[in-house]
Amino acid sequence: MAFVSQKRNVGFHVPVARLLCLVMTDTDIFISGAGIAGMIGAALLARRGYRVTVCDPATPPEEMTSEGSDLRSTAYLAPSIAVLEEAGLWEKLVPDATPLEALRVMDSAGWPPRQTATRTFRPADLVLDAFGRNVMNWRAHRTLLGALRDAPNVTLMLGVGFADLLARDDRAFVTLTDGTRLTAKLVIGADGRTSPVREACGIETRIRRYGQKAVAFACTHDLPHQGISTEIYNAGGAMVTVPLADQNGSPASCIVWMDNGDAITALTRMEPDAFNARLADRAMHVLGPMRKATPLRVWPIVTQTVNQLIARRTALVAEAAHVMPPIGAQGLNTSIADMKTLADLLGEDPGDPDGLARYASLRHRDLAIRTAAIDAYNRLCRSGSGPIQAIRAAGLRGVADIAPLRQRIMKAGMGGA
């Protein structure tokens, strides 16, 4: 894979000789982005003996109701839990984790939704006691941040972002938004779908839009979830209910609700009673009466891919490298797989081009297959066409009822081949 020239004009030009004199510090690995994937990667790499510096322009919200808090949840699947254990982080997340003991998939048509097919997938098919453990993102972010503040080999720089990058054969020179300059043997862009590291490298993106948005929030409900995550398909997209620990004595779940953009906008303007009634209808009353318990967080649904995952002394991971619709718990689990693969390929010189090329080769195939599958699945699941809905329902029954196919699909969803 060809390397790109990495230089972006941010209003100043510093000759290399002068830049060397201005460098204030150095590190083995610099990570732009202190999101969940970036922090997991930092802890994993620090455990392996690298000096890691992490920066992020944002200061993470401390509470669920704080402005900008991430009210999505992540179902950490078994492979991701293994990475968290290796990084010394899982024991810190366990107290807030709720087991996912089954996945129920329901197809529906019309409004109010009418059930057309339902199947339940059990982890016993994969010789597991649970598919994974669910944790609210805002809580995971806060917990991981606390762990990194105490971690050896990790330097956190919050409230300051990445500004510019100049890569040479033996190191990269990084400039931050507060004027700080440092050197790193490897720069990792874990800084989201608008990644400034990716922009500095000149790496192109491809975006597929669906006219959809998603809204995420937590709710309480009358019926227990019994550790079952439910995906319910209807025209406009999927709704997913993911088990949470009880809140104030009531069963609770995290909701991710996809629909056409106008429909999601209308939801955000509803009065609470009307919203709650609509929510219970959309969930086909599997959890009984439901009550929104947090603010709503809305974002557009896209598939975004990059034309390359690496540049000189630089690797992209997580949403800097790929964005997918929130289906099947693939997003963050795929990002953790990026970090694990990259960490496994790094040597004494973490920015060695051979190791980065192997990372790009290994991740490219998996990401291409995974993003294409999720894209196609989202298009199928959001259709309101009668014939397509019939195919969707028949496909669900076929996948669930044919044991070898069911196990293969479940294994692929867990990150296997």
From TrEMBL:
Gene3D superfamilies membership: FAD/NAD(P)-binding domain
This enzyme's EC code(s): 1.14.13.-
Keyword Ribonucleoprotein recorded: no
GO BP annotations, alphabetical order: ubiquinone biosynthetic process
Pfam families per record: FAD_binding_3
Residues covered by the FAD-binding domain: 26-364
Pathway annotation from the record: Cofactor biosynthesis; ubiquinone biosynthesis
MF term (GO), any: oxidoreductase activity, acting on paired donors, with incorporation or reduction of molecular oxygen
Top-level class of the enzyme under EC nomenclature: oxidoreductase
Domain of life of the native organism: Bacteria
Cofactor or coenzyme needed: FAD
Keywords: FAD, Flavoprotein, Monooxygenase, Oxidoreductase
PANTHER family on file: UBIQUINONE BIOSYNTHESIS MONOOXYGENASE COQ6, MITOCHONDRIAL
Family affiliation: Belongs to the UbiH/COQ6 family.
Record-linked NCBIfam families: Ubi-OHases
Name assigned to this protein: 2-octaprenyl-3-methyl-6-methoxy-1,4-benzoquinol hydroxylase
Gene: ubiF
